Amino acid sequence: MSSKLLRGTFILTLATIISKILGLFYVIPFKALVGDAVLYTYAYVPYTIFISIATAGVPLAVSKYISKYNTLGEYAVGRKLFKSGLLIMTITGVVSFLVLYMLAPIVAPEIIVDTDQTTKVEDVVTVIRSVSFALILVPVMSLIRGFFQGHESMGPSAVSQVVEQIIRIGFVLIGAFVVLKIMDGDIVSAISVATFAAFIGAAGGLIVLIWYWLKRKPYFDQLLKKDKGTMDISLKDIYWEIIQYSIPFVIVGIANPLFQLIDQFTFNRAMSAIGLAAQSDTSLGIINFDTHKLVIIPVSLATAFSLTLIPSVTKAFTERDRQSMTSQLNQTFQVVLFLTLPAVVGISLLAEPTYTVFYGHNQLGADVLQVYAPVAILFAFFSVTAAILQGINEQRFTILSLLVGLLIKLSLNIPLIKIFETKGAVYATALGYLAAVIINIIVIKLFARYSFRLVIHRSLLISFFTFLMFIGAAIVYKLLGFVLTPDTRMESLIIIIICAVVGAGIYFYLSFRTQLMNVLFGERADRLRKKLRLPF
Fold this sequence. Notes:
Elements: H1 3-25, H2 27-34, H3 38-55, H4 58-71, H5 75-111, H6 121-132, H7 138-150, H8 155-182, H9 187-225, H10 235-273, H11 277-307, H12 310-318, H13 322-349, H14 351-359, H15 363-372, H16 375-391, H17 396-420, H18 422-447, H19 453-480, H20 489-513, H21 516-521, H22 523-532
């Protein structure tokens, strides 16, 4: 891989992390403004599914396709895809917008099922329609990003991604503030403005990409003049290859939103059946908005790191180099567990102060976060195993595993909610993802002839280190409880910082001392040791 591509990949990964961090921290002022954010969630879950289907995998698929033919000197093929793709993505965006806009009155009554709920059907219709406008722009934006990435130019995608997020968040907060504090409007109007921010953010991101296109068009035109002209590939063949490559990314992209959609259609019904309709909206907001945003952060960081190893897995499998492939799979699984396990255990231990820092003190929110955090390990392993299945050309089983997981979630959600109330939805999600991950692992074992023996042994070591970390942090947490309370934001933040420093110190000390860091991260661990001036 060229140094230019490595640098670009790092920039793109950094932009993704920045966007996710911004997406997490803006909820503090947003929740302070609007309070219960479940109405926001009711709009965003179906929107996420539509946007995933319309665009998931498009940047990567287009990037791979253009890069492939640029390498062969057939620059006209990539330009042909780009020109026709702009038209197709525009049509896809408009159609997606119209479908979601018109489905809103049909979907909303299936979500709001009891008059005791605080949210009304017409409110859900309004916010779904507000967010649907973003579908017009996002597909085109994803295609342009793919075009730049195919030319090993990651900067435009990275900058547009961050700008899109900053503009969206700015519009969310300013719009909600103006509606509620200046215009004396209601919560529904404020959240409608907040969901429409997805369109404004997409417009900002698209403007950035257009600026980059105009700036670099002379360079792309020069490449076109170097075209060999030996290939004339039909649009039908081009898009068939793009679709085949995109499908696995679509499946992974919509997995989590589909689980959340099941909650939207069943949670309120189950809560109403046990006489808790009045608190149903708030409880669902805690699951699908509040705690989900916190849980998904360690997942994103772990999978982003481990997925960089997947191209090596693909190469080793294609070349039938079993030794190299086994080594890559060992490292991938261990890295995911090494990064995710201590993070989710820490979040679970510090659930109450963590929830307080972001959303204010709420015992139900803390309780849900405590049981939801460990499910993040399953989220991470589903994403990684699905990527590995694509690497060994068995992505068809990803569809099977997801369908099984969704069926389990759908079958158990209402019964478990009736038994365990809000936590029941989390348990159903965990069981669904567990089944999907087990299926993926079995397929990897059979088709890649991969032995999990080393991973299991190393997992025991990582689990032991995590247990010692938990004990140390738990003791400190207990002692701090005599002088600090998780009921206020400032004291909760102090608790988190002190406990995190102690827990991380124990975990990384053991990891460096036993050379586990070196085994997993190689030279990166040595560089970190030198920077920290560690004596071991």
